[in-house]
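In the previous chapter we treated chains in isolation. Here, by contrast, the input contains three separate entities that must be folded as one system, with a combined length of 1028 residues.
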Amino acid sequence: MNPTRRHYWAVRVALAVIAIAALIPVGYLVSLSLRPPDDVLNSRLWPTEWTLTNFTKVFDTIALGTMLRNSWVIAVGAALLAVVIATPAAYFTARRYRGERLLTALLASYCAPPIVAIIPLFFLLRYAGLTNNLLGLVVVNGIANVPVAVWLLDGFVRRIPVEIEEAAVIDGLSVVGAFRKAVLPLLWPGVVAALLVVFFLSYNDFLFAVYLAVTKESQTLTVGLSLFQGDRNVQFGQQAAAGLLGIAPVYVLALAAQRYLVGGLATGATK
Amino acid sequence: MSRRVPLWLALPAVAGLLLFLVYPTGYLIALAITHSSLAHRLRSFSGVENFSSALSSAAFVPSLARSTVFAVLATVATTSLGLTLAVLLRARGTKFGVVGALLLLPLVTAPVLIGVAWKLLLAPVGGGFAQAFSAIGLGGFNPLGSGVGAFLVILLIHVWQWTPFAVLISFAALGVVRPELLESARIDGAGTWRTFTTVVWPAIAPTQWAVAVLELVIGYKVFDLIVVITAGGPGFATTLSPYAIYQTGLRGSFDMGTAAAQTLIFAAVVGAVATIVTATRARALKAEGS
Amino acid sequence: MSFYLALGGRGFIASEVVTTSPFSRRRALQLIGLAGGAAVLGPVLAACGSSDGARALAGNAPVSGRFDGVTLKLLVNQPHVTSFRDVLAPAWKAASGGDLDVTAAPYDQLTSKQILDVQSGTGEFDVFDYFYFGLGDLVDAGALTDLTAWIDTNKDKIDVAGFLPSIYDPYTLLGGKRYGLPYDGDVHILFYNAELLDRYKVEPPKTWDEYDAISAKITTDAKGSAYGAIVSGQQVPMILGCSFINRLTGYGGELVDANGKPALTSDAAIAAANHLVAVAPSALPTPLQIGFDQANQAFLSGQGALLDTWTDMALRAEDPTASKIAGRWGAVSLPVGGTNKTPRTALDAGFGLGISTAAKNPDAAAAFVAWATAAAQNLSVSSTAGAGIDPIRGAVLGADGYAKVVTKAIGPIREGLGGRPLVWPKEAGAPKLLQDLVDQLALAIAGSQTVEQSLGNAQSSWEKSLT
């Protein structure tokens, strides 16, 4: 085999091995969801008895439908909110003279575990009438993840050559116009990456959801999964089933969105 | 150019900052200098009492060291693995593809489930890996049963979960490397490594540093995994700072005053380490003239 | 605050002028001002938020009645959901016309959520299914209504005399006042795998010494195919705490003596801790990482011969879809030790129903609490397989309906609840005491400290807190 073909196969084999290794725990979850309770600790990765009842019983054990809906609404809302705030802010921190200060401040706010912040946030939401409310969690998750989004987008903005905006400004656009027309299109891979990341962070958020959305109507999937943990005889199969029903649509989203990660400077950018 | 970037672009982010940094920090400071519990906040001024009890508690100060070791190891592992995987994926083509999307699964799965899956996989009797371990002569292998083992397992799971994040960002960043530059490097006869250091790295360096700092902070804030898998044990081996703070404030005596003091101390430590990294980043970026 | 200034003042780029630049100094001052303002604002908001302490329920509040159209909101422990949602809700509707809206919380978030609900001013819930263990914290937070007058006025209607003496005061009485009525009487008993005991020719242990010996024998003889004892030692009060206290109670010991002083260095306590350390090597690997989810699962899979856990294990063990040992298990009271020969259990959990001080429907809540803890309802929930509720009344404990559900476990349960079980401390701050204790015990089991050192440390920390 000539070097390029060897190279081709080496890469693919390596990726395949890594992908499989990375997937074993998730595959194990699938196998757990297909087992009756007495088969959980069977020393093997695969079930020795099979059943599909976990997927139906789980809807009786917890209000899974409501929780999934809540998790999605919150995650989508938070992602949009975070990115809408973060994109102009990232342009600011990347381009503006001394804009890094904002970046440092944002990172500083992200450094502290929000455990104690639950209390002031609780009061803030109560003031706004948003406790036990999906909108409240959208706001909390969205704003809490702005630092992540800004930090990510800042890196993406910085690698776009500033000459592009300068060219646009010379052509007569305002700075903001240059940002919108020249930079934003090039920023799409970064924006999609930021949306996805904030989505995943919010979808899997546990601490805020547990304490700021206590009622049955506002509970999210992560809270629901922790309810299984609270049982004396944990129904691992149902818990896995619930989790998989939660991951599957998100995974589809990730698959669909990853096409937009293809990007980079179009050859037309340097006109 | 840079002075003409208008201030109002930053306004929503600053408003968010005020709401989520300034107000809670102010409240946090108030909690830290008063006698406060979950039920009765801000009862009376207590000066530095909460800080001294935070620093003298047997669990908290060692947890800072543990968290730092954990976060640094996690950052190094996730960013280097992430970049390697992203390069491999790119070598395959410009699309993330099914393989890439498969790699996203750990990031997308809820931490509670990840904890449960790994806990059951590693259960020494009856766990998913038990038979496999016996087959390769490691019968009874029980990493979660020892302090060091449990720490490494949590680290492994965290790296497993967060490397896809680095892959995602690195992959997107690699997409930016201009093909013409790669082509001209190839024509000049540069080998893979030289191409990487002279063409690829300068283009992706800012995002790589961004990922490193984020992974550092995320590594510091590991919490869900510990709650589900080890409850801080065995002993205190996996009691990282967020868990220690949680124990103080939302369990035990609901002592919010001390928990607030702990949070401030912890945030200072994280901030200090993050500053070191970002300063290094700035120096490196400046040196490369980006 | 200083770290923030340090970050904000020092620029990224090495060449930048640092804190002496007027812009950054001004910015820093602005931010201090904002933070200071927020710090002042914080207490104001907090004051607006806190509820005004415990209220007392009037003596003439109802114990029954029609509440058509009233929806009561309950915050309950996750394992109790079936009992409220599937058993009590339809019956309540029939009896009173009212509805129940049941929200569940995992046991380790229950007390803090209840406190937050009231203290934040949200007041979402009317009725709390509370841990007796957290009673002190709940009362301290002003979350539970004082029911003393109401109970005294309605002693007969509520049939106070019918409550089991072993749990009535522990679950409801604090500082001379009553804050709830008992709902679920949780105790631990010792389950054993009959097949394993037969195979290795041992009898169920009567003392903790026998227990350790059996564990060692079975583990050695089974050579890895099974283990003698399953010991849950995860470092959380509800897990390691139970394991320790089950041994302590067998020795006749107490956590706190009659004068309210901690008794952690008593002979009984030292013996109990020594038993934990002694059995760890032969127990299912490894106690310090095993929580009851894994422990229960392992027992039901037939991997261990002895498990001390809650009585609802009986139902699971008999259920062929959940258990590999259906029909091949048994249950006895917890072993004894030392000079104590009378089997004794501990109130290793236990729940009461209380009324939130922020309840929107206190009258309906009162009627519900009285109704749900009445003999008829307690019988129906404890006789429903899967509801996971234990009797809180003598009549129900002795009933056949309950016995049918728990099968072989009925003997030790009656012995336990009918006796004088060990009560966990429940005043404000009790959970922290237990956490300190289990932290020390974990160190002893891990071998980093001796048992005497661990208990000594725990004793000092308890003495400091309890004075």
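Confidence is low (pLDDT under 50) at residues 262-271 of chain A. Residues 64-95 of chain A form the longest helix (32 residues). Compare these points with the single-chain example from earlier in the chapter.
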